[in-house]
# Entry
Amino acid sequence: METDKIISELQFKAVRSSGAGGQNVNKVASKVVLSFDLNASQALSEEEKALLENKLASRLTSEKILILNCDEDRSQLKNKSIVIKRFLDIITAGLLVPKIRKATKVPKSVIRKRIKDKKTVSEIKKSRRKPDF
# Structure
């Protein structure tokens, strides 16, 4: 994955933030909306696209576009850097392939220890009983 190429494919749109904030909210477009078209991407291979499409299925639109927005800060530039970082984190997490688990046998010593522990617990419970005359 080439981050510089992917970042160049991103499209940004500045929008007015919602919520409280007075005049600043009403006149400044500080909210940043990032959109990334997964199908049109040249920086990702077909396998990477398929993997991301599978893992990010709930976040993608029907046209396979990932949309993220950020209005955490009053500065449009800071919001842009925050949303880019968030996007890169999502993409790198989506491209991670989990290791295949190898099935292993339970060691004999563990089995022996479990049986020994069961016997000791059984003996403790036996000793609590009333004596049988």
Q: What stands out?
A: The mean pLDDT is 90. Strands lie at 11-15, 31-37, 65-70. The longest strand covers residues 31-37. The first helix runs from residue 3 to 9.
